[in-house]
Amino acid sequence: MAIADIAAYAHLSERDIENLGVELDEIRRDIEESLGARDAAYIRHTILFQRTLDVVARLVIALSRSRKGWLLGTAALAFAKSVENMEIGHNVSHGQWDWMNDPEIHSTTWEWDMMAVSAQWKYSHNYRHHVLTNIVGVDDDLGFGIMRLTRDEPWQPVHLLQPVRNLLLALIFEVGIALHGVHSERDRVLPDAAGVAEARATLVRKIARQATKDYLIAPALSGRRWRRTLTANASANVVRNLWAYVVIFCGHFPDGAEKFTPSVLDEESRADWYLRQILGAANFRAGPLLAFASGNLCYQIEHHLFPELPSNRYAEIAVRVRALCDRYDLPYTTGSLMRQYFLTLRTIHKLALPDRFLTATSDDAPETASERKFSDDRRGQGGLRSALKRSKGNRRRRQVA
Hints:
By secondary structure, the chain is mostly helical. The protein has helices spanning 6-10, 14-34, 37-63, 67-93, 118-129, 162-171, 173-189, 193-221, 226-252, 270-280, 288-293, 300-305, 314-327, 337-350, 384-400. Residues 69-334 form the Fatty acid desaturase domain.
């Protein structure tokens, strides 16, 4: 099932883990000490680009008369919404730019352009997910409360609907994130009934503002061409939702993104937490444009290690993190975007079925593994990456036999 002993699973000694933590702390310090005008210019230029593109896209939609003009404007609007959602809203809310002390680009004041309430999302995401990453029964992002993504969650007949739920979540991802945030907020304020009611009311007001802006005010400003604007806004929101869903799922649920039992939190050190982030996240390969479009969340491992460091630095951080993984013989989980998404879909569809239909053991499956998969593996022969290769070879030999 889920990993209960991270050191045993990683094939690292406590000293190795502490040394790994020291080296990751050094990366953090190096980046923090080098932050300056270049980084501040990056986020300001990104915000200016996004807002300019948003305005231009809406003008193209409203003023062009051709189908191509509508498609171009809608695509540009969807891209602007994606940039605002991930490269700006998500990262600003993480506090990545708080060091600038700019009240307009600060985690305490930023409210992003989607239905979720930033304050509610920050608790569910920044704390429940990033601090308690992939802890079964604790991290709400592990399946978002509607899907089974590890065999540690007992199968129920409702899981047969998982493929349909997955498609629905992808289409209305911003709604899912909004409800996810208020659900976590409810857990935080219980048993304060008034606090729960206020959290729900805040979410309803935010949803009403977003719906009014996108589906009433913007179309009304287009006059007789309101239908053109309405369909463009709706389409752009769906495209943004689909893209955000793909990026998030590819960073958290492909093979190699491990899950953990609550017991790993007992006396967990900073170095242990770092190791859990490396083992619990996954990257996908991306060039500069794809990285920008994904909010640099193609570097999900680096983001989980340093969620408060500016996203424009993740590419250079990744070089050092990957070198550390090589040095400590740890897997650096990455692949193409299509491969990572295919592996994620495989897990979603596979775990919709009862366990009796699954072939791999609950300790040695692509989506659910534990230190018990190495019960017949002798320690002292390298780290986790080497152990995984031996385990894969042993499994193939057993299949042939």
